[in-house]
Design brief:
The complex is a heterodimer of chains A (about 240) and B (about 190). With about 240 residues, chain A is mainly β. Chain A is about 10% helix and about 25% strand. Chain A has four helices and twelve strands. Chain A is globular. In chain B, a hairpin with a 6-residue loop joins strand 5 and strand 6. The mean pLDDT of chain B is about 95. Strand 1 of chain A pairs parallel with strand 10 of chain B.
Chain lengths: ~240, ~190
């Protein structure tokens, strides 16, 4: 019988990620583990994952400026592009990016959003998805989301951000992050952004790229997403 | 070789993830062509004060009833209905914090030492207030023999194993297994670094 491939991934670099508990972001206080995580030797259950099958049945829905009704959404149209890579620089092909965000006024089209009196846009639902190509490249078009207030502390405002979910080929690569915009003055006031360590938090900032900007149509931003990578030789596995 | 790029930091899915990650019906994994035993796994997700978490997202990954994963790396010559994804997304109920997964009992998949794992379901849990995903597994209380041989389960200190073994509700049809997921405290769910 043909044997399964059991790949060996480098560790989740917890020192590059936020801590589970970051008291300035109050909701983390009671929703974070007390015990240390229990390290296990990854089995086929962890080195496989839903990404390939889920990406296979996902279809591109990568223009959030028109995917609500076909009529154009209001706000600043932007192009977001980049690569999904592993930490060794290899593109992650054919993996789905699932996207959700507020509209240009900072309002989510979600039933739980009742406190912020900003207008909804009937032509913007703020959800979409795109699938990476063979080299890991992706591209979507959307409206730049507005900042919005939240209840974490007095006069708290989230910086403009886009939620991006990536499954990747292996369960252990699961990543949900938020993409921010360079130069946003709210970044240094936002405990969710600041929860990521100083050395890694700028990896979540999209950079303006004039080569992506399209004349008379939309500004362009570049944003790469880096997942855990697969160790390539047995020697490296032994060292781990 | 050291990594050349740094991993992108994780962030919370926030309160609005269900716009994209929680469409209705994703809490059901249909029975594949191979057949399989319908089961229900249900329970509450609880915070450090044992209040229910009203907006947790559970992502489910499992093998099919003969133990094969729908993934290109699982090349074993076992039956696999291609419509069986083995993937589900389950949200806790906003009022009660209860989750409910309807699926088929997974078969046994191999472990790295050449043995077989006990039937189990992998879970990724996320939510508002969770800056990183947490990973755990659900085992079954009626798989007594298989559970004894499972390397991951046996690596868990004995007193903590009940936190990841779902209890069969006597007389339930379809068989219903209960497991609460708890953050913090002595009886905290075991979360794995996978």
């Amino acid at each position: 019988m043909t044997e399964p491939i059991i790949r060996h991934y480098g560790p989740r670099a917890y020192s590059d990620h936020p801590p589970f508990r970051y008291p300035e972001y109050k909701s983390t206080i009671k929703r974070s583990p007390d015990h240390d995580l229990l390290k296990i030797v990854a089995t086929l259950s962890e080195t496989t994952g839903p990404g390939p099958a889920w990406s296979e049945v996902s279809v591109e829905d990568a223009d959030l400026t028109t995917n609500a009704t076909g009529e154009p959404a209001l706000g600043e149209r932007i192009i977001v592009t980049g690569h999904v890579l592993d930490e060794y620089g290899h593109g992650v092909p054919r993996t789905v990016l699932e996207i959700w965000q507020a509209n240009s006024a900072g309002r989510y089209a979600h039933w739980r959003e009742t406190a912020f009196p900003a207008p909804l846009d009937p032509n913007f639902i703020g959800v979409g998805q795109c699938i990476t190509g063979e080299d890991g490249e992706y591209r979507f078009i959307t409206i730049k989301p507005g900042p919005y207030p939240w209840g974490n502390h007095p006069n708290a405002w989230r910086p403009s951000h886009i939620h991006i979910s990536v499954l990747g080929p292996a369960l252990g690569q699961r990543l949900v992050t938020q993409m921010y915009f360079e130069g946003d003055p709210l970044l240094d006031l936002d405990p969710i952004y600041l929860a990521a360590p100083p050395h890694s938090r700028e990896r979540m900032i999209a950079r303006y790229d004039h080569d992506v900007t399209t004349e008379n149509w939309a500004l362009g931003y570049r944003f790469d997403i880096v997942l855990r990578g697969e160790l390539s030789t047995l020697e490296e596995v032994d060292e781990e | 070789m050291n990594p050349t790029l740094g991993q992108t930091p994780s962030q919370t899915v926030g309160p609005f993830y269900s716009m994209r990650l929680g469409e209705d019906g994703q809490n059901v994994i249909p029975t594949p062509a191979e057949g399989g035993e319908r089961i229900v796994i249900t329970g509450r997700v609880l915070d450090g004060d044992r209040h229910h978490i009203e907006d947790a997202l559970l992502e489910v990954w499992q093998a099919n009833p003969v133990g094969r994963f729908n993934h290109p790396d699982d090349r074993r010559e076992l039956s696999l209905d291609p419509t069986f994804t083995g993937f589900a997304r389950v949200m806790t109920d906003f009022e009660t914090g209860i989750y409910r997964l309807e699926t088929v009992r997974p078969g046994r998949a191999p472990d790295p030492e050449g043995g077989m794992q006990a039937p189990h379901i992998s879970l990724i849990i996320q939510g508002r207030g969770m800056l990183n995903p947490v990973f755990t597994r659900v085992y079954f209380s009626d798989e007594i023999e298989a559970n004894k041989d499972d390397g991951v389960l046996q690596a868990v200190p004995e007193e903590r194993r009940p936190t990841i073994i779902a209890e069969l509700e006597p007389g339930s049809d379809p068989k219903t297994f209960r497991l609460d997921i708890r953050f913090q405290g002595e009886d905290e769910t075991v979360f794995f670094d996978v």
